[in-house]
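Comment thread on ticket #2218

A.B. wrote:
> Attaching the input chain for the structure job we discussed in standup.
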Amino acid sequence: MNQFVACLTWPLWLAGVSLAGPPQYAYGPYNEGRMDPQVEGWPLTVEERAYVVGRAEHERRPGRESLKHLPQLWPVVPSAGHWGGTSWLETHEKLVRHVEASAGRCDVLLVGDSITQQWGSVLDRGSLNSAWREVFGELRVINIGIGGDKTQNVLWRLDHGGVAGLQPKVVVLMIGNNNMFFVPETGVEAVAAGVQACVKNLRGKFPDAAIVVAKILPAHAPGHRFYEDIVRTNAALEQLGLEEDKLLRVVDLWSDFTGADGQLRGELYAGDRIHLSEAGYGVYARRLQPLVTAGVKGEFR
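C.D. wrote:
> Ran it. Output below, let me know if you need it in another format.
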């Protein structure tokens, strides 16, 4: 695939992506190593490390190497995150070390951004929060959520040691919230395609795992751009037929976190109206419980 795939062809490309060999993405220069020097594998080469540390993320997006502006491809082509200096990469490295030390079978793999990280992670509290423990008890869980991540950052991590050696029974994915910052440029269909690309990547790595995809949670308030873009992104995701995969379930939490008028249930959120309170995690955990339990028992089929 030598040219980038246009927006209208993404669902066809994603539906037909091969699960054998390295993932192939919607932008030929990335697959051919003409962007990232190392498109997969761990540890990083000297060249790849210098590339992802030395350039801000906006300097590594599809189109930059050809002086073109291709925002519709940002969510579907892997890109390492960047917080300035080495901090994002060091965060990823810490999770890779945790994954390497935990290699083998686990009950649940949690993948996502800060909402996932705040279930409890080696990056902060070190143990799962009380909401998770109360619902799921002693399940063996690996959490690789990183605050601020977008779909493209998760794709990069999955291909660069992020889950190597793990054998999860269930994967829970929630991603896309941080992509909302860029929807005016990318459009919502691109974000939905980015979520789908993460699913395809995970399925390629874990062909027998149950996968639970949580739609993006409501944020802010009706009329706010983020709120409305999340509504549209979730609707676009619904059109992609993820549940054609018989080992995958999509969970929609919208009605759990909003009232009849569409307003957020304030007690379920932190003060920023994006992240969750302990009560919010309790609601989320209880909605996941039947799906995770069925997946751990091998009852998705």
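A.B. wrote:
> Thanks. Noting for the ticket: The first helix runs from residue 10 to 15.
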